[in-house]
Amino acid sequence: MSVAAVTQQQLEKQVGEFQNLQKEYSKAVSSRSTLEAQLKENEMVKKEFDNIKDDATVYKLIGPVLVKQDRPEAAANVNKRIEYISGEIKRLEAQIKSFEEKQEQKKMEIVKLQTAFEQLKQ
Amino acid sequence: MASDGPINLADLPLQQLQAVKNQMDEEIQHLTQSYAQLKQAQVKFSDSIESLNNIDGRKDGKKNVLIPLTSSLYVPGTLADVSKVIVDIGTGYMIDKSIPDAKDFYKTKVTFLRENLDGLQETITQRENQYKGKRSLAWLRRRN
């Protein structure tokens, strides 16, 4: 096999890997935005819990049924959720950053291979 | 931003210009979609206020309502208690609220959404103006 063919094969392999990285990257970005929306919603609920009167009744929607809930318990639940979601967002952010770095690396490799390939063709 | 970056758009080959255009198309579409969704949510909250106004202060004997079983079938009913309503505050939690409190809650939501809508509208207009400049550029290039 000629050197050019080998280079081309390598190039194709790298491009494939790059595309996979891109796919995973956009998946991470979209799940981050979903989590951010959830965080916003939970924060709003928390704000509402902080503002209500003590005698107000809290219900939770379980399936189609409204169930009465203990207020402190519900508030604690929301706080816990906020904590969890914030943690998840942090985790995803780290992941996104590492994907960005990996993509950058791959891009460099591809450019290098491409130049080599062009030269071989000539 | 592409417009003030080091890359001069006039120097880009037509193909890349097309890619930039597609990206902006997508962005504007996304923004317009978000705008429509926010608007919808705002209408929903306004409707809730309207309904509260309707039942607020109804005296005994004026509590008759028609309850929809389907969108075209109703049965007559009577409101048992109009002093309190249950409000959905998000993530599956509901809270008992007096009618004035509930109205305040929805009013805050509507104002919050209006602020967001105004900001979004501004962004959309901005993007569209940027986009117009690029489109004429692409058009010019195609003629050359």
UniProtKB/TrEMBL annotation, chain A:
A Pfam family per the record: Prefoldin_2
A biological process from GO: tubulin complex assembly
Cellular component, GO annotation: cytoplasm; prefoldin complex
Gene Ontology MF terms: protein-folding chaperone binding; tubulin binding; unfolded protein binding
SUPFAM superfamilies from the UniProt entry: Prefoldin
UniProt cross-references to CDD domains, sorted A to Z: Prefoldin_6
Coiled-coil spans in chain: 4-116
Keywords noted in UniProt: Chaperone, Coiled coil
Family as reported in the entry's similarity comment: Belongs to the prefoldin subunit beta family.
Protein name, as recorded: Prefoldin beta-like protein
Species per Swiss-Prot/TrEMBL record: Rhizoclosmatium globosum
Automatic annotation (TrEMBL), chain B:
Keyword Membrane found: no
Coiled-coil region list: 14-41, 103-130
UniProt keyword Coiled coil, yes or no: yes
One Gene Ontology term, aspect cellular component: cytoplasm
Pfam families: Prefoldin
Alphabetical UniProt keywords: Chaperone, Coiled coil
GO biological process, one term: RNA polymerase II core complex assembly
InterPro entries for this protein: PFD_alpha_archaea, Prefoldin, Prefoldin_subunit_alpha
Chain segments annotated as transmembrane: none
Molecular functions per Gene Ontology: unfolded protein binding
Family, per entry: Belongs to the prefoldin subunit alpha family.
Name the record gives this protein: Prefoldin alpha subunit
Source species: Rhizoclosmatium globosum
